[in-house]
Amino acid sequence: VTSTRPAADIDTLVTRAREGDARSVARLISLVENASPALREVAAALAPHTGRARVIGLTGSPGVGKSTSTSMLVRALRGQGNRVGVLAVDPSSPFSGGALLGDRVRMQDHATDSGVFIRSMASRGHLGGLAAATPQAVRVLDAAGCDVVLVETVGVGQSEVTVAGMVDTFLFLTLARTGDQLQGIKKGILEIADVIAVNKADGDRADEARAAAKELSGALRLVHRGSKGWVAPVLTCSGLEDTGVDDVWARVLEHRESLGQDGLEAKRADQQLEFTWTLVRDELQQRLRRSAGVKEVREEIRAAVLAGDLPATLAADRILAAYDAG
Amino acid sequence: VTSTRPAADIDTLVTRAREGDARSVARLISLVENASPALREVAAALAPHTGRARVIGLTGSPGVGKSTSTSMLVRALRGQGNRVGVLAVDPSSPFSGGALLGDRVRMQDHATDSGVFIRSMASRGHLGGLAAATPQAVRVLDAAGCDVVLVETVGVGQSEVTVAGMVDTFLFLTLARTGDQLQGIKKGILEIADVIAVNKADGDRADEARAAAKELSGALRLVHRGSKGWVAPVLTCSGLEDTGVDDVWARVLEHRESLGQDGLEAKRADQQLEFTWTLVRDELQQRLRRSAGVKEVREEIRAAVLAGDLPATLAADRILAAYDAG
To answer: Is B87 helix (H, G, I), strand (E, B) or coil?
Structure first.
């Protein structure tokens, strides 16, 4: 599919975005998010201007204080003179677009700061689409001169694994819990986390958070005993009191240093290859969803299967036949 | 695709399987497991003879004592005069086939019992294939007159969710742990479990297991407070000492009773519909894997992406073009 939009428009948008024009940045992200026919042109126009930003993933369960912590982190990064992009990825939300009230409310401290660009990414119901659009949105922000791009995701389904596959460093926020701080931590998260922060280490809860961090740190050392690679450090912080955030950022930078330039490039190359196959698989799923032939038969087949009149194997054959017929 | 094998052969196999001929059962399972062209014929020939068996999923982490517990459960079911089929699903194993030494060793108590059929199912590297083959294998055992079919899976990746989608009742085995028994339980498992058993409740560990079961039971009641549906009971058992297994089975039956006949049929119909789409998605993935066009370009594209010479979006376009060209 080729675009009917003149390529010159895309080039103009990229030029303006590189000059820091927020409207052009928003426009480019919309183009990649909607898997517009212009996606390929946008990617090609961006390519020469990308690769410079530090790309950081940030996740944690609802209630862990992600928004507040992100806001504090953005403030710290701005204080150091960085331009910052934030992509809030919520696979459970059907909404998207930089103009949403939610974006303004959730990080109102930065709403008037032209050095910060905030955008929600939505999945429209499928993580595959999100997995395809988000790395492109990162590249838009990278080309637009962001020194740091934060990709924030709520921990639903496979979203963290997806986000971990598109960032340089993956930061996991958790809480100290009474009893055992490991309880409730999603399995597999600790393996993909590069830096871990126990949040809400404030007031009465500070001691508990420190104890939890120490226990978690010990557990990680035990698990990774003998391995020569990076072992995720466990810190405490408080988004509310704005403490510990600088330390967390220092560890994020340290993680990236530990990769080395070659290691970082190899990691990004592997991610690009994985991303390639994500795009391919996503396109195949999209074709199935879009297929006029499938649309025509799906309700009838659904009814027949639910009524027990049609075995699943035969139903699948019919769907595939309808798909192949167009 | 149509089979070159005469349909009469399939009918003969089904007839012999229904008479309890283990070799014919094994042959039919191999046909569905290998996604043979005869799969559709097998499904059609089986259809009139299925729907009678109780289909029970059983999962737990490695080391939880699944094999021993399954063996005890099989013994209890045999003692009640049931014919029993066991499908051991291991998505991490490349091996399959009823003739494997492993199958005989792991349940040698039942090796000479003609009322028990044991079979390992392997995924050959993709869970999609397993998701497609296992419900068919269940149907073979159902048609072959098994009163109970146990689908046992090791808790890897999404395998439990997959198995939960093909059984009437889902039984989760866990262990009492020092400290907090919830620790280490994979997230999401408790939501899909219909009956939970804390295993190895024997000797010194019996008290600990009972305390753990009580705590877990309390947590579940708290979580499901106000819901009117089934709340998974938490029991203790010992595969080693063969205690508690009868109680576990009684609760499994109780769960199925709670569904009612209409509820059971609706559940199975929903599962068939989900299974239909699994088969469709699996076929699309298979086509991508088999595509001669893709095979031709994939190494070159891989190298170009890893070298940074080809952006992911363009690489995906090329793979899709190669796929579409055949």
So the answer is: strand
